[in-house]
Amino acid sequence: MIQCEFDRRRFLQWMGASAFATLATQLSFDELASAASSSPLPTNTPILVLVTLYGGNDGLNTVVPFADPTYQSVRSNIALTSSQVLPFSDSLAFNASMPSISALYAQNKVAIVQGVSYPNPSLSHFSSMAIWQSASPTGDLTTGWIGRWLDRQPHSPFNAIGIGSTVPPSMIGEKSVASMVDVGGIQLPWGPVAALLPRMGRPSASDVPLEAAAATSITDLYATGKALGSLVPKSPTGSTMAEQLAVVSTLINANVPTRVWEVNLSSFDTHAGEQLDQNALLAEVDGAIGAFMTSIGSGSRSNDVTLMVYSEFGRRVMSNASDGTDHGTSAPVLLVGDSVQGGLYGDQPSLSNLDVNGNLLVTTDFRSVYGGLLHDLLATPVGDVIPSWNSVLSVH
Amino acid sequence: LERGLAATQATVLEHGLRDPGAESQAALVLPILGDFPPPNTAASIPFWNKMVAEQDALTSWWLDRMYLSDYPLTERMTWFWHGHWATALSKVLYAVPMQRQNNTLRTHALGNFEDMAKAMVVDGALNYWLDNEENYLTSPNENLARELMELMTLGVNKFTQDDVTSAARALTGYTTNIFTGAVGFNPTQHYSKPVSILGATREFNAESLVSLIVSKNENAKFITDRLWFRFVSGTTKPPNTLVSSFSSREIEPLVRALVASSAWTDSANSLAKAPVEWFIGACRALRVRPSHLNVSNTQWALSQMGQIPFNPPNVGGWPFGQAWLSGVSFQYRFELAQSAVAVGDLSPLSVPKSRMVQACADWLGVAEWSRRTGSVLSSVTDSPSELALAALLSPEYAVSA
After folding, report:
1. pLDDT (tens digit per residue) in A357-377
2. Which residues contact B248 (CB under 8 A, 6 or more apart)?
3. Which of B85, B316, B147 is closest to A326 using CA atoms?
4. Which of A119, B260, B294, B347 lies 20 to 30 Å from A61 when distance is taken between CA atoms?
5. Under DSSP, is residue A290 helix (H, G, I), strand (E, B) or coil?
6. Beta strands in chain A (DSSP E)
7. Beta-carbon separation of B325 and A213 below 8 A
8. Mutation site for A-interface testing, chosen from B271, B372, B389, B392 by largest number of A Cβ within 10 Å
């Protein structure tokens, strides 16, 4: 009989209509404590900022093998000319839309890890991004890699924070999930009900996991709002990379006890008209990172902060006739920070020795890059977060 | 109660050729805007304003229709298919082809999947979204071919890169009028030689490509999985028997089988309500037509929560599960609930105080309040509006358990 009741309700819920139900009793009120003001991040604590580029950023037009004749010949309609690049060696250059990163590279603050992917790369956006965010090429882990790191920390809504409203898969663990902060600013509930809502944020024994997560989200909003609300500038326009990273630098400089941050930008899926679109996107990322580094440099944490810029895959070596590129495999990962040992890591994949689909071979596994970050920044054995993986590529 | 359940099933699954509720809404006529004026001219700003106004009008129209429909199943399924064939105004820009696509999805929402897929593969908005207007005879653009197979019909790893290359050739020659959404066919630009796709070698066009793909067993499994994922559980898999309900590729029998399956009664299966589902559910409970609220505030809040109709974040469709349950999301949920409760019909709570909390659960379709929520709600029975607001913001109402 109960079953039928649930059945009926479920239907009606599904349709956004209503039905029957039961029960209710008492619960005590727990006051929330504000973690940020009471426990600032200790000095010299490393901080990781993930910069996720959704859509598959074309690595070959980001870090450009401009001197390779094959580069010009196989993608003549989108190859960058000598006036469109900022060379840093005889063979490699940054896209000219990246003056800030180019300048940081000259100061030894940018590590370029070349040819990064994983064995048998997937050409699917969603599979490949899931692999990167779970650190599981075989797909047997459903939690995110930062989520698993979070699971090992004492619970605090401040351990990891994403910018935006939907939580990135990399930051969802078994028990813990990152908090989110919106670039639109934090506005806590108001009015007579506002005082009651924190009580709604307490998990209840009868909660299914998603209900517990919904409850925790309320607690996290109040906790982050109380601690960070006055620090996050109201931004009317939304979600540019510059706005996201401005929020992060403000909060880092305010000593918020957060070890991992995430910002992201979409639209790198440049199947057509690539140059115009990608140059604009890279300019947005570059300007935002430049401003971020300036802001962090003005505070006391410039040696603590490392950004990692990555995408789910690079793109096909040969361009298509729509002046774009189809899905590819390996691409460079950029690590930026004052404490980063700048330079080139790993090997640049050949433009002529390609896989059966005409894509670049993989020279570095992204899990080694994560391994370095876990070891150097998060003080966690890599195998604890990425089971049976122990390779570490350190750039610090 | 058994009879009650059967009656409820019948009511919920009911749909018809006419939908008086939805038809009470004035038809939305969007003028065709044509090409952009030259950049940096006096005409640019008015043109852009008109484009944004059409986008907003279309979004508002659909939210209202979801609210007004007498047969929510049709709208619910149209919404599902919108996330499935995820096409976004963020790139398409023109509302007219998106409206046309929406009508196509509604026409086939409970019909035959092969018919739907054949209509969608020549849908102008989808073709533009996935660059098929730039898929040339001499140099295929693989975007539509790949996502058609991976995200819309077969699933990942059910085809090879060679299949993608060949399917892209099958999709050459189609031309999109992005102002209207009409798709034409230019045989001289179509690859007319045989290609090999999924083991079949012959000449293909868009229609025969879809017929081939949809005939595969993987298609039945994939569509069954997708429906299960969005309607039953993001963590469990459907029973193997369910897929047989889709053997004819008729969608309605599959939906009926899903709803009749024991999974519906299993409390282990729960789903986080996506923002639009949560919002429309609240509007229906409160009897507030979405467009009677401040439309720009509503659209802003939904977009900040990551889900605004006609703007999925990418071709993979909407996020799911815990991704929706962030503190930021709660912040906007509060704003939406606050504005809807302020003008809402609270008469279902006009009962003696001792029964109000219970009545509130009945009203919102919540199975049972936790001790936590019951305690909070019991403290605000002096004010039906505070009770309604608190209940709409409860963890229980955020989840379909």
Report:
1. 899 999 999 999 999 999 999
2. B112
3. B147
4. A119
5. helix
6. 47-53, 63-64, 85-87, 93-95, 110-117, 160-163, 179-181, 260-265, 305-311, 331-336, 343-345, 364-365
7. yes
8. B372
